[in-house]
Write a structure and sequence with these properties.
Layout: E1 3-6, H1 12-25, H2 43-47, E2 53-59, E3 62-71, E4 79-87, H3 96-110, E5 115-120, H4 125-134, E6 137-138, E7 153-158
Parallel strand pairs: 4-5
Antiparallel strand pairs: 1-2, 2-3, 3-4, 5-7, 6-7
Length: about 160
């Protein structure tokens, strides 16, 4: 049974590997993505501060995915960003991404955010379908200053 819980230090290595292998799997130019973010190997420290949270999905004591919420840089404090949403290849299509996203959106609303933004890469078609089903709408341009210039799909949802 899959459990969604907040990240702990012991999950850092597993979630970093899931993110890296997912991006490699889609043969994406890794510059301008989370792959090169300086805190990818210490997600726990990055997300355990006020106004941020990162959830991980665990199945049989194994990390199988993760997703977080953080304020969107250079915007109003009412806008957050859905960040680092990745699930292992063998766990996709089983509702794990939806569980993680639901936990993030609920937490974002509880934290007082009014809108959630995300950016992703076109090859991640299954994730985009999940965002569409959840009610995210497409934007014509990015919001904020994420530094992820390789992302060309931008979406938002009101909370």
């Amino acid at each position: 049974m899959v459990e969604v819980t907040q990240i702990q230090k012991l999950h850092n290595k597993s979630i970093a590997q899931i993110i890296r292998s997912s991006l490699e799997e889609f043969d994406i130019d890794l510059a301008g993505t989370v792959y090169v973010d300086p805190y990818l190997d210490d997600m726990y420290s990055h997300f355990t501060v006020p106004a941020k949270v990162y959830f991980i999905a665990i199945d049989n004591n194994e990390v199988i995915g993760g997703s977080g919420i953080a304020p969107l840089d250079d915007t109003s404090t009412e806008v957050c960003e859905l960040q680092r949403m990745f699930v292992t290849k063998r766990s996709r299509g089983k509702g794990v991404g939806k569980m993680l996203m639901d936990a993030c959106l609920k937490q974002a609303k509880d934290m007082g955010f009014k809108q959630c933004y995300l950016e992703t890469l076109a090859p991640m078609k299954d994730a985009i379908k999940l965002y569409e089903r959840t009610g995210f709408k497409y934007l014509d341009a990015p919001m904020g200053n994420t530094g992820h210039y390789s992302c060309q799909t931008w979406m938002t949802i009101n909370l």
